[in-house]
Amino acid sequence: MNGVINIYKERGYTSQDVVAKLRGILKQKKIGHTGTLDPDAEGVLPICVGNATKLFDILTDRTKEYETVLLLGKTTDTQDVSGKILSENDSYKSLSDEIVKETINSFIPGYDQIPPMYSALKVNGKKLYELAREGKEVVRQPRRVDIDKIDITDISLPRITMKLSVSKGTYIRTICEDIGNKLGCGGCMESLLRTRAGSFSLDTALKLSEVEKIRDDGQLDDIIKKVDELFDYPSLHMREENDKIVHNGNIFLAKDTIENTVIDGNALVYDSTGIFVGIYTYVKSERKYKPFKMFL
Q1: d(CA 216, CA 139)
Q2: Which of 91, 254, 274, 294 has minimal Cβ neighbours within 10 Å of its Cβ?
Q3: What are the catalytic residues?
Q4: Tens-place pLDDT, residues 144-168
């Protein structure tokens, strides 16, 4: 079984919990997720199965969309409401909607974000949240994050409801705290729902219980998106006598394909029987197609 399943991660599960449970449901060991969601967060969590695990680096690079509720007037050690309260401040009561909107919009198109201590980032081989639980704090270097948009859907202070579209590695918890700090009252994240990760959206996401039922009904193939369906690249098909070239993951020429054409960029390559082999990239300087990701 190879491909990606769009899972709806429910509140209370870690992303690794979902992976472990799905291993049991599918009876397959080679499984992994494409971007951590906090235990209290919900929503889209694409899971790679089989040879689709080779897509981790590509899928984690894609834009993600969220709905979140920012709670002003409170900061915590985890930057969300589940953490230990560090400070409380009711000065948000004097804030106007205009000031709130102006401050939030100042974070577009991005800023240098300091990753939170309660995160899975590693320092000297140890995850930050492990250090945080030991009561240790280390210096984290700020990282540039891109924020394509922030739609403020409701302001009912101390709560602000927002929809965000952000780049990989962006912590919504941290955005919430940083907005609160810029407003002078502090803030933390009250809830988080991931509505999209790349091409995977909330409307097609399945809970683990739903996947289990689909398995029992013998319809798993209907919910697994095949690797070649994830990319909008042109297709190339090998001539039968040249199948062995790509079966071995070797370089080939345009004339080795049925199309006999040059594609500027990546191409989905199939053998003469229509089996998907992998993604190749045309190198102009060498006039050759070279393997980028192989999936045979």
Answers
A1: 49
A2: 274
A3: 38
A4: 999 999 999 999 999 999 999 999 8
